[in-house]
Design brief:
single chain, 292 residues, alpha/beta, 5-stranded mixed sheet
């Protein structure tokens, strides 16, 4: 039997839970803003690196590869989450990566998978996609830099065994609470993008010169371009994670508020019934005393 005391206890627990959800919602909103700012901070650096590529490729257009070799080796970097309460975001990106890696048209014979985030590792294992290396995902903007340096080290170590492709799988934010799975090949670079960079108009009449060899400069700029791509992927994935968590907390907050409203109405009905019963007892007792 539902009593006023049990309903009061449920209301108290629900109110405390609502406070926790509201706090988590606020923390997610703040985190989204921080990672969005981190992505925005890359714009000027990206422009500088692309201007360097523009100079090199304008002087040495033969450095642009004729086409991107498909190759049978691929290193997949799958970015998920280490924490929960963010919906099916890990399952979605794991499925996207598994489908892409098992395409018959790619003829892949050598696949290595680096997974960022413990939860996406479990999703990949459930889909039959073995993970070769697991890397702990950065929890803050300050942790992205060291994480990217570690990824570059692992990519360079993997590349020593022969040429191949490096493909990123992550969620790209569309709005604060909306995102989409995204696939981007970062090694080798896209020839179409390089040609587009080389064809841009230079802002002055004179192209800068360099004392270094064009090939050496080109290799260094491509490494910086890879660093930017990895940094952006991690920052966008974290923004999408917190956006999914914000959406989950908003839905939870609405459900809790609706539940509290129903409990409050039920509590008022039960309490009113108790008061009515107590009044009836008083009246019955008074009538019994009058009869005596």
């Amino acid at each position: 039997m539902v009593t006023a005391a049990s309903l009061e206890r449920r209301l108290r627990v629900g109110t405390e839970l609502l406070s926790i959800v509201s706090t988590m919602k606020g923390l997610a909103a703040v985190a989204i803003h921080e990672f969005e700012e981190a992505v925005g901070a890359l714009r000027e650096y990206t422009r500088t690196v692309e201007q360097g590529l523009q100079i090199v490729l304008t002087r040495q257009p033969q450095l642009i590869p004729a086409r991107t070799e498909a190759g049978e080796r691929v290193l997949a970097v799958v970015i998920g989450t280490d924490q929960g309460l963010c919906g099916p975001i890990n399952r979605e990106i794991a499925r996207q990566a598994s489908r892409w890696l098992t395409q018959p048209a790619l003829h892949l014979t050598d696949i290595d998978v680096i997974a960022l985030g413990a939860r996406v590792v479990r999703e990949l294992d459930a889909l039959g996609t073995p993970v070769d290396e697991e890397v702990q995902l950065a929890s803050s903007v300050e942790g992205i830099g060291p994480l990217v340096q570690e990824l570059i080290f692992r990519i360079e170590r993997w590349s020593r065994d022969g040429a191949g492709r490096v493909v990123l799988f992550y969620h790209q934010p569309l709005q604060r609470t909306r995102h989409r799975p995204w696939i981007r090949q970062v090694v080798p670079p896209d020839p179409g993008r390089l040609r587009a960079i080389a064809s841009r108009p230079w802002p002055t009449r004179t192209l800068p010169a360099t004392p270094h060899s064009w090939e050496e400069l080109f290799t260094g700029l491509l490494r910086q371009d890879l660093l930017i791509a990895l940094y952006r992927a991690v920052a966008e994935a974290k923004a999408a994670e917190h956006g999914a968590r914000l959406a989950a907390m908003q839905a939870a907050e609405q459900n809790i508020e609706e539940r509290l409203e129903r409990l409050q109405n039920q509590y008022h009905r039960v309490r009113q019934a108790q008061i009515t019963a107590e009044l009836l007892d008083v009246i019955s007792g008074f009538e019994a005393l009058e009869e005596d």
